[in-house]
Structures are given as C-alpha cells and as structure tokens.
Design a protein that fits this description.
Strand content: 35-45%
Shape: globular
Number of domains: 1
CATH superfamily: TolB, C-terminal domain
Radius of gyration: 22 Å
Distance between the termini: 68 Å
Largest sheet: 4 strands, antiparallel
Order of helices and strands: HEEEEEEEEEEEEEEEEEEEHEEEEE
Strand order of the largest sheet: 1-24-23-22
CATH class: Mainly Beta
Number of strands: 24
CATH topology: Neuraminidase
Helix content: under 10%
Length: 330
C-alpha cells in the first residue's frame, strides 16, 4: 500500500511539474556577453549626407582596416556606403548600377564583391568603387556557365578561386578561378546530399572546405573544393548567413526553421558561434538579421532587413538604469 501511495505521489508531482508554466529556455551553448549599437552609421552621430537613411540592409562586410561596408536597398542613399569602425561616413557608390542588392563580401586584398539578385550578376570592385569584373548577363536568368538566376553569396578559397551560391532561382554552387573563369558547378533542387532548396550563403574554411547554408532545407552542407558531399549539420536551424574567420571561427545568423524566417521577415533570429570541427554550439544571443560579418577586431556586424546595421561588441552591464542597485547619478 505504501509503495502504491509513493508511486501515486511521484506521478502527481511529475504531472504537476509538466503542467506548470515554463520559463525562459537557455541560450544554446551559453549566453554570449556582447553589447550592441542598434543603429550603427546613424546613431549617435549621423555623418551621412543630408537626407540619407538606410532602406532594407541586405548585407554588411568589413575590410582589413575594420572599415564597414553597407549594402542597402533604400532610395535616399547610395546602395553601397562605407564607414569607419566608429560609424563615420567615408564614401559611397553604386546608384543606378544594381537591380536588387543582396550579398556583400570583401576578399583578402580588400576588393569588394557583390551579388545582385535582381539583375542576376556578380560584381567585383575596388574599395573605392571602381568596377573590376562582372559575371552574369544583366537582366538575364540562366543555368549555363555564363549566367546566374538570383545569386546570393560569394566565398573565397586560399588560392583566390571563389564560389557563388546561386541561389533563389537555381539550386547550385558555381566555382570560378581567381580571374573569373568558370571551373565547375554542383547541386540541383532536392533534399538529398548535394541537393539544395535555396543555397543562401556560402563560406570556406582554412582547409578549403565549402560550407553552404541550404536555407529552405534547414541545414548546412559541407563539401570539398570539387563539390563532393562530406557531411551536414541539421541541428542549427535555417541559417540566413554564415561567416568563417581566418582562424576558423564559425559564426552564423539563424532561425529555428524556414517558416520562422519568412513569417517574421528575419526578426527573432539568433547569432550563434559554432565549433567548426564538431558543429557544437559554443554560444548564442538574440538578433534580427539577414547577413553577418566578423571584423578583424572581433566586432560582429549584422545587416538587417529592418533597415539597421547592428554592431555587437564584447561587454556586459551588471545593473539596470532604474534599479535599486544602480550606481548613484553623477
């Protein structure tokens, strides 16, 4: 009898615990302690030309001097705007050139590369805006070695070869030599290994392995430099964008799944720091975002379709602005 009562008691306690209101879930891998400037380039000091404001910011990148390049879709400012690391306006260009700004990367020589998913092109510029190379036929979508269909991102191998994720219209990755010669392509629509449903981002590590955010399949696929499938991560959600630093730190801006991305219009995402060898999540924190870049000084920049650039930098506060334990006003 006593045994039966004990079983009933334990069962009741377990049921009560399950029905109790649930609290906050932990940050995967632990909370990363960063602070944020939510309107980088516009606050606290707006140094852009009068009347300029960001529209939807599709992407952001940093160069070897920690200058910040913003690719944005608003009509009140040039599409590509450059700031120093403090948010001071430096220069801009690109008005009338792009159909729809999407991807932005900067190579080891500080050349600026963009993907235009409106005009189906990939372009390479100097850091001051001189056009050096154009791939794709303006306004023409295609699947051959001279055309793209809404390309999304670019990544660079150690020898200067580069990969284009192509993208919204095609389901493939295209590899080019450093001088823009077509080398190979892989991928087709599907859910199997080496198949894609929207390859939205691409990155390359120090061993020249290629990481592709297969966004609509809620996974990241990993390939060798010739497109051979090696493995996949399907525990990190639906990644908008991925970034690998020179020392192989893997960063991403991600959502739980593709429906959350589309429904929230890229709100409610998370920045994650991931171990490259194992895929283990090392830390996470909330952020909206469509694009991620980690500067050489360690700052994290997020390009957000909310019309913001978020600058995340190490730091934390230990008191509230109006709490009883706040320090006395000076």
């Amino acid at each position: 009898m006593f045994k039966s009562l004990a079983v009933i008691f334990i069962t009741a306690v377990a049921a009560s615990a399950q029905s109790a209101p649930q609290g906050w879930y932990p940050h995967e891998g632990g909370l990363m302690k960063y602070r944020v400037n939510i309107r980088f380039g516009e606050e606290p000091n707006d140094t852009m030309p009068d009347g300029w404001k960001f529209g939807r910011v599709s992407s952001v990148a940093t160069d070897s001097e920690n200058n910040v390049y913003v690719f944005q879709r608003g009509k009140k400012a040039d599409p590509l705007i450059v700031f120093d690391h403090n948010g001071k306006y430096l220069r801009s260009w690109g008005r009338g050139i792009f159909g729809n700004p999407h991807g932005l990367r900067i190579d080891k020589d500080d050349n600026v590369w963009i993907t235009d998913n409106g005009d189906h092109q990939v372009m390479k510029f100097t850091k001051t805006g001189t056009l050096l190379m154009t791939l794709g036929v303006k306004g023409k979508a295609g699947t051959d070695d001279k055309t793209f269909n809404k390309p999304t991102d670019i990544a660079f191998a150690r020898n200067g070869d580069f990969y284009v994720s192509d993208g919204y219209g095609n389901s493939r990755v295209v590899k080019f030599s450093r001088d823009g010669k077509y080398l190979l392509t892989w991928g087709k629509p599907g859910r199997g290994p080496g198949e894609f449903q929207l390859p939205h981002s691409v990155a390359v590590d120090s061993k020249d392995l290629v990481y592709v955010s297969d966004r609509e399949n809620n996974r990241i696929q990993i390939f060798d430099s010739n497109g051979k499938f090696l493995r996949q991560w399907n525990h990190l959600g639906s990644a908008q964008n991925i970034f690998i630093t020179k020392d192989d730190q893997f960063w991403m801006i991600t959502h739980r799944d593709k429906i959350e991305i589309l429904t929230y219009d890229t709100l409610a995402g998370r920045i994650m720091h991931v171990d490259l060898a194992t895929g283990k999540i090392l830390g996470a924190m909330e952020s909206p975002g469509h694009w991620i870049d980690v500067a050489r000084n360690g700052d994290i920049y997020i390009g957000s379709l909310t019309g913001n650039v978020f600058r995340w930098y190490p730091g934390w506060t230990d008191h509230g602005v109006a709490s009883l334990d706040a320090p006395p006003a000076k």
